[in-house]
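Fig. S4 source data, part A: sequence.
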Amino acid sequence: MNQRTAQIERNTLETQIKIEINLDGDGSASFATGVPFLDHMLDQVARHGLIDINIEAKGDLEIDAHHTVEDIGITLGQAFARALGDKKGIFRYGHAYVPLDESLSRVVIDFSGRPGLFYDVSYPRAMIGSFDVDLFREFFQGFVNHAGVSLHIDNLKGGNAHHIAETIFKALGRAIRMAIAPDPRMAGIMPSTKGTL
């Protein structure tokens, strides 16, 4: 496989975002987004997905974090799409169950080329520190729309909002890691009967 890396810049009147990813990294990550809890969650994706991720973002945080969180999801999705290229030789599908104390979440992903978010998560409170949990859906929607993935996220158990969020992002990293791994039996082959993804 070729080197699976991407650099994306996205500039709007609301946000300026730069993202670099290496899908075959070791989980190294650096974040400067102005949204600390999102940084903490994205670090889980990097560490558990063994993906190097660097994100710099400036947004209109004086209003709220909505535009910044959503646009990071969009830009990260674009980076995945570019880094994966034609997707030949990958497993395509990935899944993970991740527990953290009382919480348990399941994430299933398909790098199908067709965006779809199926999100069944209820948080016991609206805020984790200063982070509005409604923004997670905005992040995931931006990601799936631009990565071209079908993403199912289900929280199966949980009473602590931080734990619920952390199990979701850890499971996302693990599911992505499985899906994008090179399949030695499919080297150079498109993992679809349609011949394209």
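Fig. S4 source data, part B ends here. The CA atoms of residues 43 and 173 lie 9 Å apart.
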